[in-house]
Amino acid sequence: MVEWLLDGLLVLALVVTAAAALWSAELFRAVVVFIAFGVLMAVAWVRLRAPDIALAEAAIGAGLTGVLLLDAVSHLGGKRRRAHKPGDGRQ
């Protein structure tokens, strides 16, 4: 019973972090939530008894990709994402 509760909470946390990363208005916050999603995904792979995939997810998904995205955000200066609106003069 406790295992089912843990798995349910893990799935809920994965869905919430994925939605938060997608709908975040600030780039830095979106990247941090994406890293948290990668860590949770690694835990999910451990629960599925796939430690090799969990290590790859933690190293590549949360670690390397997270660092590269944080570096990209720092080069952008923390600018907010804005949707392109027709006729606003931006290309």
Briefly, what is this?
By secondary structure, this protein is mostly helical. The protein contains 3 helices and no strands.
Question: Could you explain how this protein is built, in words?
Answer:
This is DUF4040 domain-containing protein. Pfam families: MbhD. It is a multi-pass membrane protein. One of its GO terms (cellular component) is plasma membrane. With 91 residues, the protein is mostly helical. The protein has one domain. The chain contains three helices and no strands. Helix 1 packs antiparallel against helix 2 and helix 2 packs antiparallel against helix 3.
Salient structural properties:
76% helix, Nuo/plastoQ_OxRdtase_6_NuoJ, MrpA_C/MbhD, mainly alpha, flat, 91 residues
Structural class: mainly alpha
General form: flat
Query: Quick one: biggest sheet?
Result: none
Spans where pLDDT lies below 50 across 5 or more residues: none
Taken in chain order, the helices and strands follow as: HHH
Q: Could you report the average pLDDT, rounded to the nearest whole number?
A: 88
When the domains are counted, the total is 1
Rounded radius of gyration (Å): 16 Å
Number of helices: 3
Give the helix proportion (percent range). Answer: over 70%
Q: Please give the alpha-carbon distance between the first and last residues.
A: 55 Å
Strand content: under 5%
Let me know the number of strands.
0
Provide the fold topology:
Layout: H1 2-23, H2 27-47, H3 51-76
Helix pairs in contact: 1-2, 2-3
